[in-house]
Amino acid sequence: MEKADLNFSELPFSYQKTDFNIRYRFKDGQWDKGELTGSTDISLHIAAQCLHYGQLVFEGLKVFERPDGQAQTFRLEENAKRMAHSAEKLLMEPVPIELFKEAVHRVVDANRKYIPPYGSGASLYVRPYLIGSGIQLGVNPSSEYLFIVFVSPVGPYYKGSGLSCVHLLVEEEVDRAAPMGTGDIKAAGNYAAGLRASIGAKRKGFSECLYLDAKENKYIDESGTSNFIGITADNKYVTPKSPSILPSITNKSIIQIAKDDGITVERRPIAVDELESFVECGCVGTAAVISPVGSITWRDKKIVYGDGENAGPVTIKLYNKLSGIQSGKDEDPYGWTEIVPAG
Ligand code: PLP
Ligand code: COI
């Protein structure tokens, strides 16, 4: 298969047009058969629910080209389940798991020439989303939905290689999500709510901000794009337990890998003043993979991890194991990867 004319090893994490996207409509109580299209536009009624009352949930996952040239997904079903859960929380019509998987398979199959070659360090990012497309003026859930999946070949989310350090700023003036709110689902509104803090941190020269819990302003929640992990001096993997963070599929996977490597894992509240005791920290997520944290600035204190520029040994080990499975370089003992069927 001839690849698209792209410099795959230099790709940023940004939108790159491909040949097809896929759309399914839910109307009169049922899903249609879906349409693969080359058009990048959608037509919505001006009163579509999602445009003013915000029924919009999404997902993000990656597809990799294996050494044998086949394409593989990573934990696709987990993303399907999470989107269904997100939809249910916002009283939206959930996309059936099998339909979600079929949509991803069809759109990836149609865009094979955009899947970055094995060894390029890049991947095909898959962005499924679900919107309430029915007409609403009163505040009510939509009765019609549009489920769209588009793809884009991407490189690392943060500048540099997959393992370059990010620098975080602890945010104390913006709450992203409340304990009984929507932080635990992938609702588009969460990302809008976090923009002010995230862009504020970037303007100050940081890679991202790190949110604290909204109730006590004391415990680490997560960043706007990934879960947070810390490694203690006695080699424990610690990650926040909080009702207002997204249950990261990457974090869940690394936890499994870490446990199988003999590392003790603790999921518990992490007070902000515990940050100083970690020897390594990381931001984990589909886009971020495991981005090592070089420093965290909290008020006027800058906590530096290692030399502040390079990932520590535990992070490197976990990164290599995870990305080895994702890319098909290493065997997948967990059954997390699946070949994308050729249509
Ligand atoms: N937290 C937030 C807010 C995210 O947007 C993401 C990305 O999806 C994650 C965590 C990581 O989740 P996952 O590993 O499932 O991509
Ligand atoms: C992902 O990691 O897939 C996400 O959805 C995070 C996004 C902000 C890029």
Describe the protein.
The chain is α+β, with helices and mostly antiparallel strands and 343 residues long. It folds into two domains: 8-154, Aminotransferase class 4, branched-chain amino acid transferase, N-terminal domain (D-amino Acid Aminotransferase, Chain A, domain 1, 2-Layer Sandwich); 166-327, D-amino Acid Aminotransferase, Chain A, domain 2. 22% of the residues lie in helices and 29% in strands. It contains six helices and 18 strands. Strands 1, 2, 3, 4, 5, 6, 7, 8 and 18 form a nine-stranded antiparallel β-sheet that branches. β1 and β2 (30-31) form a beta hairpin. α5 (249-260) crosses α6. The chain is globular, with a radius of gyration of 20 Å. The mean pLDDT is 97. Pyridoxal-5'-phosphate (PLP) binds next to α5. 2-OXO-4-methylpentanoic acid is lined by residues 60, 225, 285-287.
What is the name of the CATH superfamily of the largest domain?
Answer: D-amino Acid Aminotransferase, subunit A, domain 2
Which range best describes the helical content: under 10%, 10-25%, 25-40%, 40-55%, 55-70% or over 70%?
A: 10-25%
The top level CATH class name of the largest domain: Alpha Beta
The ordered H/E elements are: EEEHEEEHHEEEHEEEEHEEEEHE
Query: Whole-number average pLDDT?
Result: 97
Q: What name is given to the CATH topology of the largest domain?
A: D-amino Acid Aminotransferase, Chain A, domain 2
Number of domains: 2
The end-to-end distance, rounded to whole angstroms, is: 14 Å
Please state the overall shape, judged from the principal axes of the Cα atoms.
globular
Gyration radius, to the nearest Å? Answer: 20 Å
List low-confidence stretches: none
CATH architecture annotation name of the largest domain: Alpha-Beta Barrel
Number of strand elements:
18
